[in-house]
Amino acid sequence: LADGYLQHVYKHIKEHGGVCIADEVQAGFGRTGTHYWGFETQGVQPDIVTMAKGIGNGLPLAAVATTKEIASTLQRRIHFNTYGG
Description:
Blueprint: H1 5-15, E1 21-23, E2 48-52, E3 62-66, H2 68-73
Parallel strand pairs: 1-2
Antiparallel strand pairs: 2-3
């Protein structure tokens, strides 16, 4: 990505009430070579970070990290998944 690209995009998303999500399945856990998370190379702070593969050391494991505010809304749902929201 071009330098500053995500800063520009995140700014516009936030101005319109959106949520910024960083998918770190491929780039996370130090795979960029310079930073632990890919989004760190852009100087942004996402609201949600998804991660997998590297977290399980070969096992099928994934995780989601988010803000306390967003996490509290998950209590309203009994079940969520990749396909069902």
